[in-house]
Amino acid sequence: xxxxxxxxxxxxxxxxxxxxxxSTCVLAPNASAMTLDGTNTWILREPGSFECIVVDPGxxxxxxxxxxxxxxxxxRVAQILLTHGHDDHSxxxxxxxxxxxxxxxxxxxxxxxxxxxxxxxxxxxAGGLDVHIVSTPGHTSDSLSFHVPADGALxxxxxxxxxxxxxxxxxxxxxxxxLRSLDVLESLARSTDALLLLPGHGQALPNPADxxxxxxxxxxxxxxxxxxxxxxxxTTAPEVVELVYADVPRExxxxxxxxxxxxxxxxxxxDE
Length: 272
Hints:
The chain is α+β, with helices and mostly antiparallel strands and about 270 residues long.
């Protein structure tokens, strides 16, 4: 894991690379409107250690497995961790596990492999590096974030992205839980003076607490827009999308409709 540090939050297309002394991103070859530049596979390693942790192996792609192994270099993969079970993060987990001989740990037992799983408050250690597990449901019910105190880093999966906003994957995802998870992450970022936000898609960012606060503000603005759309006569998620997400490319409207369903459910619960 040697090389030139990539700039944080720059305008150049994101290609991954060495982000800090302990974190390297290997970008998966699955770029799309939904996955941005591709899934960020994060390799976490204490400098000088011969063990590392791989987070979110991405798709089952042998070329990507090779790229991960090149980035790992002479280290042994001690653990594979999943932020959540969506295919673009988890599909390659078992395949990579078989290649490198490491267990897969996740909150949802169906994605664990050779491991008892992960829970809020757990600490995963490899080669002197501690990774703290933080439950952050909302995008999905099984979403986790990872705090690496030694690097001042928060790995947020799809809860907070490197650009744009994330989908609340209703009905498994829940907007109320999502907003509470943003509160948890911002509080953690501020109390620990976190320096880096390492997302599941998009570029690594500085100032995690401010990024997360911005996400919360955006969500509440969208909720106000949804209320206004309902007041203007919209009755279905697609009708709301046409009014509220007119500035979003149409290829993203199906995903927006899923988030709108989560927003409608959230508002309905508060109107009861």
